[in-house]
Amino acid sequence: MLNAFKWLSNVPQQTIIYRIRRDALETRIFPELSDDQGNQNSNSPRQLQAGVTLANRYAIQEVIGVGGMGSVYRARDMHFPNVTKLVAVKEMINTAPDPLVRETIVQNFEREANLLATLHHTSIPRIYDYFSLESRSYLVLEFIHGKDMETIINDTKGFLSEDQVLTWAIELCDVLDYLHKHKPDPIIFRDMKPSNVMININGDVMLVDFGIAKTFQSGIKGTMIGTEGYSPPEQYRGEATPAADIYAMGATIHHALTRRDPRVEPPFSFAERPLRRINQAVSAEMETVVNMALEYSPASRFRSALDMKQALMAVARKTGALSRISVSSPVSTATTGGVKPLWSFKCEDEIRSTPAIFQGVLYVGSYDNNLYALNSADGKFQWKYPTEGGVVSRPAVVDGNIYFGSEDKRLHVVSARSGKVLWTYYTDGPIRSSPRIAEGHVFIGSDDGHLHAVNLNTGRLVWRFETADAVRSTPYVTSDLVYVGNESGDYYAVDFRGVLKWRFHAKRSITSSTVGTPQTIYFSSVDSTLYALDPRNGWVIWRFRLGKASISTPCIVDDMIFVGASDGFIYAVDARSAKEVWRFRTEHQVNGSPVIYKDSLYCGSVDGNLYCLEYRTGRLRWKFGTEGPITGTPLVYDDIVYIGSNDHQIYALLA
Amino acid sequence: MDKFFRWLFGNNQQQPSTAVKTVEAANTAPLSEQQLQSIVGNQNPRFDLQQLIASGGQSVGKQRELNEDSIFALTATMAGNSGNLPFGLYIVADGMGGHQFGEVASNAAIRSVAGYIMSKFHPFLFQVKPETVEESFQEIMQAAVADAQRAIQKEAPGSGTTLTAALVVGQQITVAHVGDSRAYFIYPDGRIEPITRDHSLVKRLEELGHITPEEAANYPHRNVLYRALGQGEILDPDIFTLGFPQPGYLMICSDGLWGVIAEQDLVRSINEAPNLQRACQNLVNAANIAGGPDNISVILVQLIG
After folding, report:
1. What CA–CA distance (Å, rounded) separates A430 from B17?
2. Please, which pLDDT band fits residue A39 given cuts at 50, 70 and 90?
3. N or C of chain B: less Cβ packing under 10 Å?
4. Which of B233, B255, B295 to mutate to test the interface with A (most CBs of A within 10 A)?
5. Do the chains contact at A42 and B150, CB–CB below 8 Å?
6. Please, what are the domains in chain B?
7. C-beta of residue A635 within 8 angstroms of C-beta of residue A357
8. Counting beta carbons within 10 angstroms of the beta carbon of residue B34, is it exposed (0 to 12), middle (13 to 18) or buried (19 or more)?
9. Does the structure show a pLDDT above 80 at B100?
10. What three-state secondary structure class fits B20?
11. DSSP A486
């Protein structure tokens, strides 16, 4: 397990970097990586080019939208040569090879045209024309200067104001009321959602896309008309009633006020995301209205769109901007001051490493070049062992001996009891990696670019494996292979004879150490990715994108992976599906590793705090502030958490 | 007779082969320990070569005229000095019924998913100097599903299909799943474990506690899905990776099988069958005997060695 360093990636001399302060380090170690995710645009079939004139009348200007079956264009109506009359031309390309399928599609399109032609409302675009050309059909509609609501939600930093959403919602209820009262038969819109609502330059709403507003065919599996996420339970059963539009209206307001897209959440899960838990600026009255619209049973919702409109207007009257009460969250802060250390011990320089414990004694390295042995119960000093370089390596204890590396290039082995040296082993570069002991060997990396296998008892080199760059991660050992990453992003699986079995390459350095199960190994990289690989052959099972670079070693519990990153977050990721379970924000980089003890996660941050979170939910239990950044990993043993800080101290806290 | 065996097994008088002894002793004496060992060994062979074996079964059922299910199974064994990496791809797609061209959708789904995945693995599998695959298994699956979504929207707009696809590379199974076809792990000791979660209305209502499992079993709209390939704008398939059960089976099937036969009967059918082909046939037959209300599709896969 490698912890954190006070040196920079590309500075070769430790003496120079020794005094670089953390501020410089943290900003320079992880420059923003350019996001190289690209364009996976669909190759939609032949869009019309600007300049083409359709039906001798509509001069295409540009594409303003792309749907599943064609594009929407802005065009100029050339029947009005003296004024610029803009129209929206909605195109439907019939790509279906099967004649029966083709026919059905054309019928659906005609139905939308006929329906629209019968409607007159300021919030419904007017229809001007309808025609077909070969395999394409076109609807010519009123052009709306504006943006759709989904775009507005996405483009807004933070949340849209409640007043704004309220105004739109009232107008939308008004147009729904108009549709539901349509004669001879009510029209159910069935596809209310932000992307179907345009906001024009006057700020008024326009309901667009009447493609599926029609009589409903119920019954057979698959008649899933409506948009997943916004549709109520009964709509999946084939029931389309005004109550379904009311539910979708509630879902639309919920999306607008929370920015949580219901299409990527499980269906009918709004109750799990209460409005005011996500957006505390929302009024209690508004939440009540939305909750009622989103009632599971249609009978419990508003009886009509008009009722909902009136309820929204009541909210508007009650909550002037002045009377709005901002509800503060009941979380965290209260618990901060309460945590007192059992003991603390001060070294002469920063502690960036992770301690180890053995028979009631805590061993920890410091940048004052010493390894300290302290009584784990009271922090009393036992002995210290001096090296000639900073110690960031986490000690390993075997048979009463302590193994650890130092920036003086050596692997040191000292007696746990006396602190007397048994042997040392020289590499050709500073050691920041930690030793891993298995099968009678000590495996350790060095800045000399090698993975060293050293005989556990004699301290003699068994073999060394050359990599292309410094090895600062700690080797991970399974029953037949040793895994290690280096600073140029190479990752190696080597057998016990030092023979390469496979290798993998990440885009940036792999400073994080590996953790694994027999099925999968995990590590993070400065390329902002958490990797899951097959330990047998190096195939990539999944990649999880972190907000920024990471040198934090992951930890695994119950099919969950936890890892920190320099964007300040601690992430919890599902090990099977690579989906984020939660993330917790600290105030600065998280370079150390999380550890799990019982049902808590402990992790330090460069913001100086040690955080204790409920590991299943990421909820804060308590935090403990130190005087300097924390870059090491806590050790939890016997209900006590031990953590070193750059304030030169090591603390013992009750877990 | 004796001559025949000698010819068959080589004429070595000092050390007559076990097979000869077994045959000679069969009628007259109890089996020796050595004989027992050899029989047991033959029944439960250990293979040095790790490989996948798979079989499929399908039937239109007894009550439908049209088969809207599609299945795809591909198994590759490649071993040599460069390594031994089992590779397999298994897909079940159940097109959605009625006049909505479900058979077009399920066919487009299996072909485009398989086509996309094979194009990604082609340089690794079929080039003299194999190239490593850049993307992760899960990224490839995600892209394959998106590709299938586009294909269906093009071939049969408005239609939809379920999709349960399992990509096996080495001992890792990466599953992409939309809808209510299912993948199971089945163990020789009789345990059966569904590894996918149905995207059906009834399952969701059950998860939310609106209906009990008993009500779910008799729910009138059991076949309504809330997520299907070809439907909706944002498709969010479940994608995850698990280790291949060893010993055990991977089974993928449509609701024409799992909706008709109780889980424990599925397991019994499989564990009683002498081989995978027969197991698939038995499963299909059982579903038909139970009324065959829907199209039936099943794929069984085993990783040996």
Report:
1. 64
2. very low
3. N
4. B233
5. yes
6. 2-43 (no CATH), 51-304 (3.60.40.10)
7. yes
8. exposed
9. no
10. helix
11. -
Kindly list the structural domains of chain A, giving each domain's residue range(s) and its CATH number in brackets, ordered by start.
Answer: 55-142 (3.30.200.20), 147-318 (1.10.510.10)
Secondary structure letter of residue A174 according to DSSP: H
Token look-up 């499929």 returns B56
3-state secondary structure of B265: helix
Per-residue pLDDT tens for A377-403?
888 999 999 999 999 999 999 888 999
Chain B positions touching A520 (Cβ under 8 A) are 241
Beta strands in A51-204 (DSSP E): 53-54, 58-67, 70-77, 86-93, 127-133, 136-142, 146-148, 197-200
The pLDDT value given to residue B261? 93
One-character DSSP codes across B63-92: S-SS--EEEEEEEE--EETTEE--EEEEEE
Backbone torsions φ then ψ of B269, nearest 5 degrees: -55, -45
Whole-number pLDDT of residue A306: 92
Query: Which residues in chain B are contacts of A228 at CB distance < 8 A?
Result: 226-227, 231-232, 234
Cβ-defined contact of A96 to B201 (cutoff 8 Å) = no
pLDDT at residue A229, rounded to an integer: 83
pTM for the structure as a whole: 0.72
d(CA B296, CA B298): 7
Sequence-distant (≥ 6) Cβ neighbours of residue B89 within 8 angstroms: B72, B73, B74, B114, B117, B118, B165, B166, B167, B168
Answer yes or no: is pLDDT of B40 > 60: no
Tell me, what's the pLDDT at A421?
92
- Chain A residues within 8 A of B68 when measuring between CB atoms: none
B60 pLDDT higher than 50: yes
Give CA–CA dist A234/A229, Å, rounded.
13
Confidence of residue A489 (pLDDT cuts 50, 70, 90): very high
Task: Say yes or no to pLDDT of A479 above 90.
Answer: no
Mutation target among A221, A270, A542, A560 for the B interface, most CBs of B within 10 A: A221
Q: Which of B138, B156, B231 sits opposite A541 (nearest CB)?
A: B138
Contact A532 B241 (CB under 8 A): yes
Which of A100, A104, A237 shows the shortest C-beta gap to B221?
Answer: A237
